[in-house]
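HUMAN: Mind making up another protein with tokenized structure?

ASSISTANT:
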Amino acid sequence: MRLEKTTKGVEKLEKESVQRLSQMEEGDNDHYGSSSDDDTIGMSGKQQVQEDAVKEERRQEIQQMQNSMSKVNEIYRDLGNLVEEQQYEIDDIENNIMASHTRTEAGMGQLMKAGEFQKSSSRCISWLLVLVVIAAVVCIGILYGKQIFKKD
């Protein structure tokens, strides 16, 4: 938004400057053109050439300023277009970040569930191991118990 306002401001300044410079140039031409015939006759050819050279130099400077202002205006427009194009990419990156955040939160929830499942499965395995040991002790007791009673 600021870039658009700045671009419009530069365009306005450019137009105003061109108008002022054109008015100044016309004013100089009117001044030189309105001189009396006596002044023109009294003016030497060398002075006339110098005045013409000054006028031409001034006209060239005005033209250069107009070209420079046009280039600045074009740069602002190009910059505005680049910012607009990059905005789509920034929005896409932002959407990807939001999606990643959502997926990360879902992954954290699944890790918590997996941790709880692992704890409960560890308990089940511990109880199962205790039952197997008890069953083994009972089986060994039964086998040795028969052998002890057979010897007597």
